[in-house]
Amino acid sequence: MKTLYKLVLLVILPFSLKATSLKEIMQITVKNNLNIKSMNYNIASKKETLKSVTNTLNPTINLGASYNKLGLNIRSSQVGATLSGYIKFGVDLYDGGKNNSIKRQKAFEVESIKLGKKASIKEILLQVVQLFYGIKMVDENIKAYKDKSKTLSAQYKREQQKYNLKMITVDEVLKLQSEYESNQYIIEDLKYQRDELYQNLTLITGKKIANIDNSKLPNIQNLRYKPSENIEVLKSNLKAINEDINQISAIKKPKIKLEDTINVYHYNDYDKAVLKDLPNQQNQLMLSFSLNLYDSSTSSKEQSAMLAKLVKKEQLNYAKSKEKIAFNLARKKLLTQKAKIDSAKSALEMANSVYDIILTKYQNGIVDNISYLDALSKKTTNQALYNQALNNYEIAKANYYFSSGVDYQKVLKMKF
Q1: Which residues sit opposite 289 in a β-bridge?
Q2: Whole-angstrom Cα distance, residue 332 to residue 377?
Q3: pLDDT, tens digit (0-9, with 9 covering 90-100), for 106-142
Q4: Are 151 and 180 in contact, with CB atoms under 8 Å apart?
């Protein structure tokens, strides 16, 4: 039975512990993330709106009917009851450029929301990277503190034996036990943090992620800044406001409209001897021209749109400056994190050396357990700091990539 159980474990374990790479998680996120899906629907909606204004002549077909009944004193030259129906075809031969402007505005809105989607995907993928390396950091810290627990447990057993032989006092044993329990508390807290990070990763990706591998982003070379999709969104919004201004200006321009109406009539309750030539059908063609000489609101609307344009221009200039600063800071952050790795590695090596020396002295009774516990704690703390530096360096890489304005699809095509 035990042999069968082991065989089952050997078959199931590789599948249950299959680690997911960072690249796979990012690809899954782009495909399954609910916010990205909602943006796809929004784009589809805007495209349909654009289709609705594609024909700038604005053709219309209207169908209608009416019934008219006269009562009391009806003259012989009047029809008592008239049933009429009509179908009207209309087209704007010239509307001052309004419909063309609306079409361009809707096209800019579609462009803007597409660019906004790309910018949002980059932000979501950066969150994925942060969660991925956050999990790695916590995992490595759990391992470091578990190693500390094993060391403490072994030392506790040795000290317990010494205490049983009356070689040491009880306080020396209790100090080790207290440190062990405190260490276990830290491990449990780290486990909760890891579970929380996995839950957040699952929420963002739209798929259950239970295990991750040791993926690392490729090193960055010759990366240059270019405006991001957020800048392009602001530019599209500025163009859309220009079309608002054009639409307001179109109010002052002449309008030419062509309409053709076919009417059908049916009459009752009238003197057929007097009214012999009532028409059963009529076709009416009308070409109309209009010009708005004055209205009280156009000037204010135009001024409002111009001020809105100035607002967008200032927002665009601010965003450009902010992005360039963010890119430069991201580059400095990357260099800083690299320097931190070197410092943390050096500190860890020294802490390990000090621990080895103190351990030998402790085992030979030269130093007390307080010095030993302090050296062990510093060793574990420096290991955690080194883990943090390594993983923060990977996050800094991702932040540097995305702050440069690079397309997220280019990042996904990289080998890592």
Answers
A1: 256
A2: 31
A3: 999 999 999 999 999 999 999 999 999 999 999 999 9
A4: no
How far, in whole angstroms, is CA 86 from its chain's centroid?
Answer: 52
DSSP 3-state assignment of 146? helix
Span 55-86, pLDDT tens digits = 777 888 999 999 888 877 777 777 778 888 99
CB–CB of 57/256 below 8 Å? no
How many C-beta neighbours within 10 Å does residue 181 have?
Answer: 11
Q: Are 97 and 253 in contact (CB under 8 A)?
A: yes
Q: Each residue of 351-360: pLDDT tens digit?
A: 999 999 999 9
Task: Please give the Cα distance from 182 to 176 (Å, whole number).
Answer: 10
Under DSSP, the state recorded for 415 is -
Give the three-class secondary structure for 87: strand
Give the per-residue SS3 of 366-380.
CCCHHHHHHHHHHHH
Return d(Cα 173, Cα 145) in angstroms, integer.
20
**How many Cα atoms are found within 13 Å in the side-chain-facing hemisphere of 372?**
22
- Residue 1 pLDDT class (50, 70, 90 cuts): very low
Q: Which of 217, 221, 209 is nearest to 391 (CA)?
A: 217
Question: First CA to last CA across the chain, in angstroms?
Answer: 43
The residue among 206, 238, 250 whose CA lies nearest residue 101 is: 250
Beta strands, E only, 276-350:
281-290
Helix (H) or strand (E) holding 391: helix 369-403
DSSP state of 355: H
User: In 3D, which of 68, 79, 67 has the Cα closest to residue 271?
Assistant: 79
In our burial notation (b when 16+ CB lie closer than 10 A, e otherwise), range 208-236 reads: ebeebeebebeeeeebebeebbbbbbbbb
Residue with tokens 């995305």: 402
Beta carbons of 194 and 135 less than 8 angstroms apart? yes
- From 289, 264, 291, 262, select the one nearest 278 (Cα to Cα): 264
The span from the CA of 111 to the CA of 131, in Å, is 31
Residue 394's nearest CA partner among 200, 222, 218 is 218
Q: Which is nearest to 250 in space by CA: 203, 288, 295, 287? A: 295
| Type of residue at 333 | K
The Cα–Cα gap between 59 and 225 comes to 47
Q: Which residue has the higher pLDDT, 184 or 255?
A: 184
